[in-house]
Specification:
This protein is an alpha/beta fold. It folds into two domains: 204 residues, Aspartate Aminotransferase, domain 1 (Alpha-Beta Complex); 227 residues, Type I PLP-dependent aspartate aminotransferase-like (Major domain) (Aspartate Aminotransferase, domain 2), CATH 3.40.640. It has a seven-stranded mixed beta sheet with strand order 1-9-8-5-4-2-3, sandwiched between helices. It is globular, with a radius of gyration of 23 Å. The two termini are 45 Å apart.
């Protein structure tokens, strides 16, 4: 796509939501609904001496974050909170939680949705409701909560490698790890890119296994035209504040299995099946009403949030095109995506700088890029010390050592995206000088 056609496409995207041309600044509300004042662009670095790592001025005095909360309409949120205050109804499956569950189920294409206190407890409840035992196969390229949730339920996570293209579970690696002790496959739709659902479902049927998806990154996405939330036995969402749609803190399980949904509801609320009637073991994993109020407010702006994410993603992708050794991981055009993560693959052999060096440079400038995820979960405790820990997951290790997640969301303007790109280009163009300076400092 040439520069003219790209700019035309960007303008077209902004026309979907006219105020998307420049999103709200950090912490602002959406009464505008989005302010249209562009943030001041950071001046370009003129020499290596001007890098903040070497004592120069910081490019972004107000740091740019990965996953800074998107905020909906302040007045809508406060009106809901005032309503709860007046009703004195703050928890225990109230009206806003029920409405939130209905809206999530509709968007996820699922018959049932159970809201929870967070995504990790949602994973735990689902594992217990599915009556999993023994071993579960999970990727190591994920947030540690995926494995921790299984471990908390007395299960043993067995780490499989991932596919180079999707960065999700490699079905061939999964199949090699299936044993008589395996009870489930737990896929992760990493960065909103979905697993090879069909291949994993085939393996699950063939070996009589349960299939669960950690969809923390993939709310609002589709796979082969089907909404994420309607796949496998169940899919788990996170509505943590770092997610593009959030409830301050929260989670949810989406499923088409009525009995499974009912078991999860019992587990979520101490095992209560009615007043004074406890029918089994349970815990307290309920979402409260104020979280649901934020969740509903966030859902009202979901399309606008995606439009900003999409704009930023395409800006990064277009402006970084042609930069040797730097590649923005793409999305499958055949499906719908939330674009909440912009991940670049950094090739040290071509850029002349290590991934960790460039992350240090960016962070010194106020660009809080992340090595997301690093290290792989199989290298974390308690898993690394276990006898069953894999010796090597070559694709996972390669992705872990090369990935950088860049700031995006409504707290990051188009001008700031382009300033980050200029900074990355400057680093690559002056890699030899920067590396020599770093080496002198280390010695």
């Amino acid at each position: 796509m040439d520069a003219v056609s790209f700019d035309a496409r960007l303008a077209e995207l902004c026309l979907v939501h006219p105020a998307m041309a420049e999103p709200t600044r950090h912490g602002a509300d959406l009464a505008d609904p989005f302010n249209t004042v562009a943030a001041a662009s950071s001046p370009a670095k003129q020499s290596v001496d001007e890098l903040a790592l070497f004592g120069g001025p910081v490019a972004f005095p107000e740091p740019l974050h990965v996953g800074r909360p998107n905020l909906g309409d302040r007045e809508r949120f406060l009106a809901r909170v005032a309503d709860l205050w007046d009703r004195r109804y703050l928890s225990n499956d109230g009206p806003y939680v029920r409405e939130f569950e209905q809206q999530v189920a509709r968007r996820a294409g699922a018959r049932y949705c159970v809201a929870t206190s967070n995504g990790t407890t949602a994973l735990e409840l689902t594992a217990r409701a599915l009556q999993l035992t023994g071993e579960v196969i999970v990727p190591a390229l994920t947030f540690v909560a995926t494995a921790h949730a299984m471990t908390w339920q007395g299960l043993t996570p067995v780490f499989a490698d991932v596919d180079e293209r999707t960065c999700c579970l490699d079905p061939r690696s999964v199949e090699r790890l299936i044993t008589p002790r395996t009870s489930a496959i737990v896929g992760v739709h990493l960065w909103g890119r979905t697993c090879d659902v069909e291949a994993l479902a085939w393996l699950a049927r063939r070996h009589n296994l349960r299939l669960l998806f950690d969809a923390a990154h993939a709310f609002g996405c589709t796979h082969a035209g089907r909404p994420v939330g309607s796949l496998g036995d169940a899919e788990v969402f996170s509505f943590h504040a770092s997610k593009f749609v959030h409830a301050c803190e929260g989670g949810a399980i989406a499923t088409n299995d009525e009995r499974l949904a009912e078991r999860i509801r019992l587990l979520r609320n101490f095992g209560f099946a009615g007043q004074d009637r406890v029918v089994g073991l349970g815990t307290n994993a309920k979402m409260h009403e104020i979280s649901a109020a934020m969740g509903l407010t966030s859902l009202e702006h979901m399309g606008e949030f995606i439009a900003v994410n999409r704009r930023n993603y395409w800006l990064y992708r277009d402006r970084l095109r042609g930069l040797a050794g730097v590649c923005v991981r793409d999305y499958d055009d055949a499906d719908r995506h939330n674009f909440q993560y912009v991940v670049i693959d950094w090739d040290e052999s071509r850029t002349g700088m290590s991934r960790d060096q460039v992350v240090a440079i960016l962070q010194a400038e106020g660009v809080l890029a992340r090595r997301y995820f690093h290290p792989g979960v199989h290298r974390m405790e308690p898993y690394a010390s276990r006898a069953s820990a894999p010796m090597s997951l070559p694709v996972t290790e390669r992705i872990v050592e090369r990935s950088i997640t860049l700031p995006t969301g409504t707290a990051v303007s188009a001008a700031e995206v382009q300033a980050v790109v200029r900074l990355l280009r400057f680093v690559c163009e002056h890699a030899d000088s920067i590396r020599a300076r770093l080496n002198r400092h280390d010695s």
